[in-house]
Amino acid sequence: MTTNTCPLHKRARRAACLLLLLLGATFAAGTANVQAHEFKVGSIEIEHPWSRATPPGARTGAGYLALSNAGTTADRLVSAASPVAEKVEVHEMTIVDGVMNMKQVAGGIEIPAGGEARLAPGGFHLMLIGIREPFKQGALVPVTLTFEKAGPVEVELEVGSMGAKEPANDHGHGAADPAQAH
Ligand SMILES: [Cu+2]
Asked: How far is the CA of 19 from the centre of ligand 1 (A)?
């Protein structure tokens, strides 16, 4: 289920990446923009890490991202941490008899050799527990991901709207057009 690739989503993502590349070519500072959404460590690539805005007083936030492994051996996302949360756990959401449940994933999430793993609403996610302040739309939340083989890497979760179902990949008018937010 987690290795499925939604073609629509992928197309949107590709369009967003293309847009970022174009922006990068236009502005000298654009490089920083590109790197904010694509991270790499060893043979692992982390694409568009994102989160959702949290209501005032919320104690937890979630993190979503896509992982791909260009290497010839499998790797695992084993842990995560963030300076803005007391701890970060790798969770899986399941629905059992219509009841939504989530639990910590023992042993982390495998990214097969040449394959990918997806942390997305309704499935695997990062759970940031004990967040120090609400996540605001448009903010970047720093998270360190640690892979069994590739080691640690710092990424930033781009905070979307409270009900966002996918990353705010339309960098053309996301923050400038709040009417787009649900
Ligand atoms: Cu969770």
From this structure: 32
61-93 pLDDT tens trace: 999 999 999 999 999 999 999 999 999 999 999
The answer, as to whether pTM is greater than 0.90, is no
pLDDT digits (tens, 9 = 90+) for 114-150: 999 999 999 999 999 999 999 999 999 999 999 999 9
Calculate how far, in angstroms, residue 111's C-alpha sits from the geometric centre of ligand 1: 19
Q: How far is the CA of 92 from the centre of ligand 1 (A)?
A: 7
**Rounded CA gap, 62 and 88, in Å?**
9
- Sorted by where each starts, the structural domains of the chain and their CATH numbers stand as 40-164 (2.60.40.1890)
The confidence score (pLDDT) of residue 165 equals 86
Task: Report how far ligand 1's centroid is from the alpha carbon of 124 (Å).
Answer: 8
